[in-house]
Amino acid sequence: MAHVSFSGSPFGSISHKQCIIADNLHQQCLSEMKSKNDYLCPDTLQAYRRWCPSDIRAQQAYFRYERHLARETGKALAS
């Protein structure tokens, strides 16, 4: 089930921006901790889960994985 805010409501763009900000802050916290353990940054994890629906979080995780592989191998995954 998609998050209501992403369905074209007038507040969708605000929620999308909040999702991107929450994701960036959480990833920044994880990189500062030099870990991939989400629970080391509980505040940013809670904000990330609040603002980003699960389908968007899964998509962002896939894109992060794809970028990681592209850096490691020097080529992008087939879309």
Can you walk me through this structure?
The protein has three helices and no strands. It has helices spanning 12-33, 42-51, 54-73. Helix 1 (12-33) runs antiparallel to helix 2. The longest helix is centred in the first third of the chain and has 22 residues, at 12-33. It starts with 11 loop residues before the first helix and ends in a 6-residue tail after the last helix.
Question: Key terms for this structure?
Answer:
mainly alpha; 79 residues; globular; 66% helix
Oligomeric form of this entry?
single chain
**Mean pLDDT metric:** 82
Radius of gyration: 14 Å
Structural class computed from helices and strand pairing:
mainly alpha
Shape: globular
Order of helices and strands: HHH
Q: How many strands appear in the DSSP assignment?
A: 0
Number of helices: 3
What is the domain tally?
A: 1
Uncertain stretches: none
* Estimated helix fraction: 55-70%
The N- to C-terminal Cα distance equals: 24 Å
Largest pleated sheet:
none
* Percent range for β-strand residues: under 5%
